[in-house]
Structures are given as C-alpha cells and as structure tokens.
C-alpha cells in the first residue's frame, strides 16, 4: 500500500497551494450567484435545476444535470458560507482520493506490478491537465464523477471474477488469481453487479459523461474477461448460449445505459442545449466540410494536451482553435496520423486476441495429452507404482492422503540465466517456451522408437502457461483498458452525438487521462524490461524526468488559479479576446480604470462583436461620467446582442441622467418587452427586464405621472421571477400610493417591503417620511433611528434623519446629522448641499459659502447649487462672485424666478454701491 499512499501524498503536496486561492472564472456563476446553494432554497430545486441554477426545462438551460455536485457545494455553503477555502479543500481531498483509488486499481487489477502501477499513479497525481479540474471549483464535477467511475469499474471487475469462478466461461483466464477464485454463492456476484450500476448512476449525477463507465464495463467483459475476437463480434457468437454469463453482464450494463439516458433526457426536457456561436464556432458553421474537418481534428489537440501540457488555458472558445476550412490545411495531416495510429492500435488488439486464442488452443491440446499421460501414471500408482505426489499449479509437489510418494513427481528446474533462449525465468521458476516444449516432445517421441517408454522429471512436459503467453496477455489487457478509458469517456465531448458548449475543456480530460497514464506507465515498464544494462538507467532517468516536469508544470499552473487576474493573464496567448475581456473586469474592480479601459479595447481589437465587452466598457465610461461614450458602447452592445436587457437598462439610466427623459422612457419600455428564451443566463436577463420596469416607474413618478407609475410597478411585481428580491418594488409602490394620497395602501406596501426584508433601509426611510407627513412623529423617528442602527455607515440615513429634524425645527440636531452624512461621503453632492443649507439656517454663512462652492464643483450641472452659492456670495458681500453664480444658474435653468429676483436685488445693490448710496445689503433668497 506504500505506492498508494505515496501517490496520494504527491497529489496533496502538488495542490496544497490551491487552498489559498480565490473563486475564479465559472466559480462566480456556479457558486456566488447560484441560489440552489442557499439553505433557504428548497433542496428539491437541485434536482430540477441545472448546474448553474437554471431550470432544466428552460430553453436557455445549459442542460448540465449534476445534482450530486451541487449538493456538495451546498454542504460547503452550510459549513463556511462563501469562504473559498472549504470549496478548494473539498476538491483537493477528492483528487487525493481518486489518485489513491486509481493507483490501487492499477496495481491490483491491471498492471499487477508495483513499478508500473506506482508510475501510473504518480503520472495521474501530477499531470498538469488536471489543474483546471482540481484548482477550479467547478471542476469538482469531473473529479467526483471520476471517483464513482472507478468504483463502478472495480465493482464490475469483481462481479466478473465471481461470476466466472465456478466454471471457466471465458476462453482463458487473465491471471492465476482468477483461476484460484473459489466458488461463491450466486447472490455474491449480484451485489457487485448492482453496486457497479449504482456507482455509475452516481457518476452520471455528478457529471454527465460518468455514465460511460457502463460502456467501459462492457468492453472489459468482452475483451479482457472473455477475450472475444473480432470474428466473434461480427458473427454474434458472444450472443450464443455458451456465452450466457457474458450476456448477463452485457445486458445489465446496456439496460443501465438505456435507463440512465432516458432519465437524463427526461430531466432536460427532451431538448438539446443551445450554445452561442462563440462557445463552439464549428457547430454554428454552415459548411459541412469545415465542421467535419474541425471536429475530427479536436481529439488530436486533446491528445496533445495529454502528451505535452505546456500551453493551458481557462477557456478555448472563440478563435482559440481556428476552423479547418480546407483539406489542404496542414493540420489535416496530424488528423490522419492520429486516426491511423488509432486504427493500428485496434488492429494490434484484435490480431493479438486472435493469436492468443490459437496459442491457447495449442496449450489446451498439450494439457489434454499430458492429462492422458497422467491417467496412465495414476493407474500405475493404483497398482502399486506410486501414489504420493501430484503436480501443483505453481510447479511444486503437493502431498495427498498423508502418504509419502514413491512414484515419479514433476519438479521444475531451478532458476537459471535465460540467455540461451530456451526458457525464461518467471517467479523464480524455469518455464519452457511453447517452441522448446514442442521440440522436446518431438525428441522424446523419436527416442521412444528404440527404448521402452519411461516417465521422469527430465522428459515430462511442462504444463505451466508459458511466460511469453502471460506477458503478451498482460500487455494486451493494459492496451485495451487504456484505449477504452481514453476513448469512451471522451466520446460525449467529440460533438458526435450532440454539439457541446466548448471547443476544448481541459477538465473533460480528467477521466480519459487515466488510460493515458496506464499506457505510458506500461510502455516505460516494457522498455525498461527489454533494455540491456545501462540502458535501463536511461529509461528510469527519463521516467523520473517526465514526472518532475509534470509536477513542476502543475505546481506553477496552480499559481495561475490563485486569482482571476493571474488566470486571465495566463490565457492571453491562447484566447486573447476572452482573456483581455475578463482581465478588464478584474482591473476595473481594483480601481485601475485606465488599465481596464485599455484591456477592454484590446479584447475588442481581436473580436469586435463581443456584446459583453461593449457593455462592460459602457459601465466603466458611465462611472467615469463620460456619458456620451457610454451611450455609444451600450448601443454597440445592443447591436451585437439585441436582447441584452442590461445594456438597455443602463442606456436608459444614462439618458435619464443627461435629462433626456423621453429617450430614456422609450428604452425602458423596449427593455420591458425582452424575453429570456434560449439565453444561457436567463436570471440575469430577467433581472435587467424587471429593473427596467423599476426605473421606468421611478421616471414616471418623478414626472408626477403617478397613475402610470402605479401600473408599471404593479406589472413589475406580477412579472417578477423568484430570484428577484421584491422589497424595492414594494417600497416604490408604497411611495407611489403615498403621493397619490392613498395612505392605507401605501402603508400596506411599506409593511410588505419590510416583511420581505426587515433590514431594507429605503423602506425605513420612505415609510418614516410618510409617517412624518401624517403627524405620526414618534413612529417616524423610531424608524429613522432603526435605520441608523442597521446601517451606521450609510450616509443617506443621516440625511433623511437630518431633514426630518430640520422640518421639526430642531436645527442644531439636524446640523449634526448632516455633518455626519458629509463625513461619511464628502464627495456626495446631496450630502454637501444639505450641510450647506443647514449651516445657512444656523446663521453660519461663511462656512455655508464654502460648502455651497464644493457642491457646485461636485455637480456643476445642478442649477440650485450655483443659485445658492450666489446667494451666499450675495449675503457675504462678494457681489461680483454672486453675479457670476447667478448667471451660471440661469444658464442651466433659464427663467428661474428665485434666481432672477436675487439677480435684480444684487444688481440694484451693485448700482447703489458704485454710487455710494448703499447702507445695507438686501437679503437674497436661498433654495
């Protein structure tokens, strides 16, 4: 078991540094935004939603049905909420467990020798192509599916051995262990058969291609356990009565496949998934030749990733793999070599099965002759010639009936150097080859013409199975199992049965890599055995170098998965548009606006039709108050993807900010008509639609169109999907009812908002405002104090409370509240403006002037800031500055009566001042 522990320890060491990694790439959608992980979500939703939390019957569902994997995420969420450590720990422990189980299977079941089994386990533990599956949390589906895959495979092997233990139903045994298997009750084998199907089901429920283990089990039974030849398959001989035990296994696995497929199709709504053209460009290409040549070439690239995992990427979509549009493309040559090699392997396997079948027949004939000869000896012993010892399977004599033998016993020669080619050494015992055995038989027969026939250990034929035969059988078994493991689990990813949503996905290679590791380990072992002297050292050094290179690449690749920024930077060489677009989002979240903008533009320089990149660039420009550029970006996003609701939503918000309410209203109304059919993220789509209705209602409310706003908010509530939080809609509906004077209805919706989310701050504030206006002062102040208690670091709670106190004439308390709001958000225009107003009311005109000036700088398009600043200048005797501020206010808001009245007073004062008649400064009105 030291090899199993050693390989497991290596897997743990190599992936230890991933425990400190953050969520990355698809983890956001699968973990952070997946409602199915929340404890308040009914656990039954897991069995009706796909891997990303979208209902399977939805037209935009990914159709990835992995409830067991999602259940493990939910368990992580229960233990540690959204702490990534627990999720990464789960992945690493699963990989360690799979490595241990694979190494055990390689040593006990397949390779049967410590060195190649250990090498296969080490290669599997260290292979860099596994990094995405282990370091990426969404890769748990592949690792978990592999665990159940192996358990199903091992259970089926145990079933086969127990099934064939009572009688040799296969053409010949694969090992002495099989031959020594005791006869067991029939029901024992059915336990293992049932377990194999159960684990296959669990593998499929962890990830879809896990069900392919049932096909692997069938291939093992047909080609390894029963050594069926090509002619047996073509003539349907395996379906004859003589093979009823084989048919028992095959039919059970075939029925399992049929049931699991039917189950899978039923839960996905009997419809295939729909993917965007960028996910799998070849699938959407109209040219059949292009699709065929590209799809045939993709397995070549996957094999290359197993052979040389140097260039790895988090995503291979878009043009990461250019389409093959012509037969003259040089890549077609590699495709031909690949499939030619595959055909050669298949031919080798079938030819070896045929040769070994005939060789087994020859051995059986010799055993039959030996049996006849033994019968003669047995009769002799019965007549007193001898009755002591019989020949055992391993070539040693066994004592029978407690009597010492006096007859001839066959005792093999001791071990020797087999350089003469007449025999080989096997387990310390000399066994003769089939050729030398036949030669000795011929010599013995010729000698018997002139001498009486005698039997002795010197001329008695060796009936042990020749080691060349065993060795060839062992190699063939490994080659078949390796090819089956590499090919069958990979078939669903080949676009053969249906189009998949990726070009290359490294984590899909997690299960097929087991076959690769077995094949490489056996090849190195055979090369070592056949290498003379010092060349053995070269082979060992080469194998060690391969392991070191794989381990080093895995260790370094894990650092790419430490953070999203590192991951996206590592993918720029393979998939520049996707990598730059995602990297820009990270840079933007870090506040590196200039770098993020450059990254967005780099992404668009490679692929100009990426709607998400245009949309995200629009958000960056909007936040930078470059509104016209933001509008252009949103419009380009809509042009690339007309149903992108979030782009419509933000376009409407920018237009409303610029005072273009009519245009904003049209955009909002159009966004409200968009549906989510066929979209892979319907939740985000419907969030944009309902948010557009929400903003439309607010726009109508601001314009005093309360009845229209009421209808819009009601429509939004009726169309609201379950994942959209309702408290904001309830609050706005309550506010609209209040402005319509329908106090009872307003209060009912305010209370519903607080029931939906008791800590919802806007509902506290608007409800308090209504209570204050209806003279329920104590209730209003209680709500305002509760809001401050819930969000002591939120500036607007102090502003609302300050306004309430100001309306009650409690100016000093109001000033304290406005000061607190300003301290929390000194860059907020409203907080600054309200503080200036409070200072003016408190008679502190000098400080008020400074804050009005700051407010005008923070929001230069606000006319009231310039008008109030002019009033402060006016009161403080700064007449020229006052005139400039009044003029700017009138430029922004012409014909404002308060500003015009103040300007007339100011100019009258300036005229009197210039003539020396002024005795006082007329008071200016503030706003």
TrEMBL record:
One of its GO terms (cellular component) is endoplasmic reticulum membrane. Residues 387-423, 439-467 are annotated as: Disordered. Residues 439-453 have a biased composition (Basic residues). GO terms for molecular function: dolichyl-phosphate-mannose-protein mannosyltransferase activity. It is an enzyme of class 2 (transferase). TPR repeats lie at residues 611-644, 690-723, 727-760, 761-794, 795-828, 863-896. Coiled coil: none annotated. Pathway: Protein modification; protein glycosylation. This is dolichyl-phosphate-mannose--protein mannosyltransferase. The lineage of its organism: Eukaryota, Metazoa, Echinodermata, Eleutherozoa, Asterozoa.
């Amino acid at each position: 078991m030291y090899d199993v522990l050693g390989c497991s320890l290596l897997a743990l060491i190599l992936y230890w540094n991933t425990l400190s990694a953050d969520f990355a790439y698809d983890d956001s959608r699968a973990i952070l935004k997946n409602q199915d992980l929340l404890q308040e979500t009914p656990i039954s939703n897991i069995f009706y939603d796909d891997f990303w939390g979208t209902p399977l019957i939805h037209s935009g569902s990914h159709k990835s049905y992995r409830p067991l994997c999602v259940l493990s995420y939910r368990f992580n969420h229960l233990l540690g909420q959204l702490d990534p450590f627990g999720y990464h720990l789960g992945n690493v422990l699963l990989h360690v467990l799979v490595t241990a189980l694979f190494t055990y299977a390689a040593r006990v079941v397949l390779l049967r020798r410590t060195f190649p089994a250990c090498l296969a386990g080490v290669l599997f533990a260290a292979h860099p192509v596994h990094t995405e599956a282990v370091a990426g949390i969404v890769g748990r589906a592949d690792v978990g599916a592999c665990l159940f895959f192996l358990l199903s495979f091992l259970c089926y092997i145990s079933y086969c051995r127990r099934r064939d233990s009572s009688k040799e139903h296969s053409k010949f045994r694969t090992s002495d262990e099989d031959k020594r298997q005791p006869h067991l009750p029939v029901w024992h084998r059915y336990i293992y058969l049932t377990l194999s199907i159960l684990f296959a089901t669990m593998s499929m429920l962890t990830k879809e291609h896990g069900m392919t283990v049932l096909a692997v089990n069938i291939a093992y039974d047909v080609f390894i356990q029963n050594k069926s030849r090509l002619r047996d398959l073509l003539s349907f001989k395996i379906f004859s009565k003589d093979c009823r035990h084989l048919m028992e296994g095959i039919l059970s696995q075939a029925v399992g496949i049929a049931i699991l497929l039917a189950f899978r199709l039923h839960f996905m709504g009997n419809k295939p998934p729909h993917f965007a053209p960028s996910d799998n460009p070849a699938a959407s290409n109209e040219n059949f030749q292009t699709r065929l040549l590209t799809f045939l070439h993709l397995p070549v690239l996957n094999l290359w990733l197993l052979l040389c995992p140097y260039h790895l990427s988090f995503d291979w979509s878009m043009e990461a793999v250019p389409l093959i549009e012509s037969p003259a493309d040089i890549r077609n040559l590699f495709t031909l070599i690949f499939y030619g090699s595959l055909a050669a392997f298949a031919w080798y396997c079938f030819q070896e099965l045929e040769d070994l079948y005939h060789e087994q027949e020859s051995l059986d004939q010799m055993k039959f002759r030996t049996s006849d000869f033994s019968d003669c000896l047995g009769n002799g012993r019965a007549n007193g010639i001898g009755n002591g010892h019989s020949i055992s399977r391993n070539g040693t004599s066994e004592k029978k009936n407690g009597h010492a033998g006096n007859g001839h016993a066959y005792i093999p020669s001791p071990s020797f150097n087999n350089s003469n080619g007449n025999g080989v050494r096997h387990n310390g015992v000399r066994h003769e080859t089939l050729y030398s055995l036949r030669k000795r038989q011929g010599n013995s027969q010729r000698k018997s013409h002139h001498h009486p026939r005698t039997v002795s250990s010197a001329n008695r034929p060796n009936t042990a199975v020749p080691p060349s035969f065993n060795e060839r059988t062992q190699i063939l078994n490994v080659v078949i199992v390796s090819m089956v493991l590499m090919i069958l689990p990979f078939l669903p990813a080949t676009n053969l049965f249906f189009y998949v949503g990726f070009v290359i996905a490294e984590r899909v290679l997690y299960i097929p890599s087991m076959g690769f590791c077995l094949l490489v380990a056996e090849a190195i072992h055979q090369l070592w055995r056949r290498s003379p002297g010092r060349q053995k050292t070269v082979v060992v050094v080469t194998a060690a170098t391969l392991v070191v290179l794989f381990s080093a690449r895995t260790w370094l690749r894990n650092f790419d998965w430490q953070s999203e920024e590192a991951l996206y930077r590592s993918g720029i060489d393979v998939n520049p548009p996707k990598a730059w677009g995602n990297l820009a989002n990270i840079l933007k979240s870090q506040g590196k606006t200039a770098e993020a903008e450059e990254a967005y533009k780099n992404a668009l320089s490679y692929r100009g039709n990426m709607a998400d990149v245009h949309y995200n660039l629009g958000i960056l420009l909007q936040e930078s108050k470059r509104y016209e550029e933001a509008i252009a970006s949103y419009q380009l996003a809509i042009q690339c993807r007309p149903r992108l609701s979030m782009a419509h939503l933000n376009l409407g918000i920018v237009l409303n900010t610029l005072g273009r309410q009519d245009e904003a209203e049209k955009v909002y109304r159009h966004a409200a008509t968009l549906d989510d059919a066929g979209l892979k993220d319907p939740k985000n789509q419907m969030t944009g639609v309902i948010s557009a209705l929400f903003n439309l209602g607010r726009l109508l409310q601001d314009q005093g169109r309360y009845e229209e706003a009421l209808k819009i908010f009601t429509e939004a509530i009726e169309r609201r999907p379950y994942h959209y939080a309702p408290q904001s809609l309830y609050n706005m509906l309550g506010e609209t009812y209040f402005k319509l004077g329908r106090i009872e209805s307003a209060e009912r919706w305010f209370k519903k908002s607080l029931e939906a989310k008791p800590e919802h701050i806007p509902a506290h504030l608007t409800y308090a405002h209504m209570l204050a206006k209806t003279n329920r002062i104590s209730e209003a102040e209680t709500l305002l104090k509760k809001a401050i208690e819930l969000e002591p670091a939120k500036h607007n709670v102090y502003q609302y409370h300050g306004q309430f106190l100001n309306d009650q004439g409690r100016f000093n308390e109001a000033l304290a509240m406005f000061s607190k709001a300003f301290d929390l958000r000194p860059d907020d225009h409203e907080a600054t403006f309200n503080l200036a107003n409070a200072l003016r009311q408190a008679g502190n005109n000098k400080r008020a002037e400074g804050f009005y000036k700051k407010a005008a700088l923070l929001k230069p398009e606000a006319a009231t800031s310039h008008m109030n600043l002019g009033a402060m200048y006016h009161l403080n005797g700064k007449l020229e500055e006052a005139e400039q501020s009044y003029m700017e206010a009138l430029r922004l808001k012409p014909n404002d009566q308060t500003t015009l009245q103040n300007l007339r007073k100011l100019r009258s004062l300036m005229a009197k001042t210039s003539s020396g008649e002024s005795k006082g400064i007329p008071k200016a009105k503030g706003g």
